[in-house]
Amino acid sequence: MQKRRLLFGKKNFILVAVGIGVILLGFLLMAGGASTDVNVYPEDAIYGFRRTVLAPIVVLLGFALQIVAIFTPSNDAPEEVERAATTTVSKTVADIKSGANIKSGSKSSASGK
Which of 28, 37, 48, 78 is 20 to 30 A distant from 54 in Cα terms? Predict the structure, then answer.
């Protein structure tokens, strides 16, 4: 049976977990502001810097970290894939140096068609 390789590596999953933690921290910073007296409106507690500025910035940083985690390339590639990629690149470079892959255009044709 062939071994399946995951799309994300260990590094990606760690970044996703840290991003989720940062998002949760941002939501915890937004929580609170309850008053024991229903007739008192704690305006500075509800509209303070922590809830209106800091917490949304922390949440957005968490989402940005999720995007970074998704787009970070995985370094857990199998040896066969790395070997095939290296062989293909070195073969292409050798072909370019030797001129084997150069297609003849209309300017280089001697017949003048």
Answer: 37
pLDDT in tens, 11-27: 999 999 999 999 999 99
9 burial via Cβ count (<10 Å: 0-12, 13-18, 19+): middle
- pTM, whole model, 2 decimals? 0.62
Q: How many domains does the chain have?
A: 1
Q: Residue 51: inside a domain, yes or no?
A: yes
Q: Report if residue 72 sits inside a domain.
A: yes
pLDDT at 79 over 90: no
Q: Which among 59, 53, 57, 52 has a CA at the least distance from the CA of 27? A: 59
